[in-house]
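new request in #modeling-help
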Amino acid sequence: MSENRRPVPEVTPETERYWSAAAEGRLLVRECNECGLTYHYPRALCPDCFSEDVVWKEASGVGEVYSYSVSETMEGWPEAELPLVVAYVEIAEGPRLLTNVDCSPEDVEIGSRVEVQFADVDSEGIAVPVFVPVDG
Amino acid sequence: MAENDPVYIAGVYEHPTRKAPDKSTMQLHAEVAKGALGDAGLKKDDVDGYLTAGMPEYEYGLTPLVMADYLGLDPSFTDTTDSGGSSYISHVGHAASAIRDGNCDVALITLAGRPRSRGQATGSGVRKLRTMQDSFERIYGATNVTMYGMAAQRHMHEHGTTSEQLAEIRVAASHHAQYNEHAMYRDPVSIEDVVESRIVADPLHLLDCCVISDGGGALIVVSDDVRRELDRECVELLGFGEAVGHHQAGRIDLTRTAAERSGMRAFEEARLGPEHVDYASIYDSFTITVLEAIEDLGFCKKGEGGSFVEGGTLRAPDGELPFNTDGGGLCSNHPANRGGMTKVIEAVRQLRREASDEVQVDADIAIAHGTGGSIGTRHGAATVVLGGESR
């Protein structure tokens, strides 16, 4: 996937571990030890209770499509990856993640079961979580 | 002034242009400011409050300084709240608070932008990452139109809403736009025209989307003391509410908007309810934006928006809830890719009996509602309830 020109996320001290874990093939979520919330996107303070006692947790990587839309064109997007399926995936741990379902549009619907994969980007040491449909 | 003292909209102006390649955006701000002051019968020197949102063309910031300098204002109150298209409705509420606090008496609110001349379609490409969240959203091609597409898809899934029902919203807007000489698209369209137009972001069609236009608008909000000295018919601000909707840490509900809260707050302050509304301006970036707002503002139950809009409900002058009688953002104007300003302007026209004859409603109570940002991630909602002078 060396010619892949997906946009590269901005990596900050607050999010670096999320992106580097993706490069190692792991999807991380944040969990609050204080109130028990599992949340996404990663933040240093729990967005429910402002506790700083929050930990990284490896997610199972499975979920289902909460909603999706399909773009036939996307300015600045690699031609080979169009049409593009943009989706919210509700992962088994609870949070709804904005992501792509890497499949042709006719293979996705609300409720489709999906699992995580990791797409390379033009940046050392990070990858981007995306999802693909799971058979059955 | 005291907490409950009345506050009025005394002047409104919508720039007639829809394409302004030969003007600067700052010039448009000045032109609409002059227009609204003229409508109210006030002079530039009367302005002591100034409100506007950010200027998308300039990422510089310092908006109140840049604008006061250019316009030659000496404001004792400024506010540059930027919640996208809902900003200008929030500004009305913020101006009212400032007037009641004694911080100003004549507040000027301006909007201007030239996305059409600049070739800037809102959110149709992967623009550069600007916010922290963009690294978790934009990198997936989550543009405005795909996010509203996801909202529509989920609404259809949960409530059985159809593309034909969404199309009713465009049909009503186009019916109104034919009487607006400044509207970008004046030809009435049918449900078939909408659902047979190309898909932009499944399930939204091209005709589910608003126009891209240059232009602007301005409002003048005044105290009761100022109002008494004016000859112009003024519209009273009866209630205001605003709210923010967002991811809720990963629990986003794409079928609900913050209009639930902004609308409730505005109606409570006005001591009125949806049943009292004679005319509604509802921000229409996409047809789904209107459908969800109608439900969330309480005009029908959640999930029943599709059947509610069927059969000409939104069509003036005889529909149950006449909406966007200027043609709205869907057909007339969407200056700066932001719709809140024109929503207030048309509501004021309706209450002053200055809408186009064919779509003039017998309106004493109107609302204007704005949605800013994206209901697919985070959005502002702002609602005003307005009352006509002769009600």
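bot summary: Chain B has twelve helices and eleven strands.
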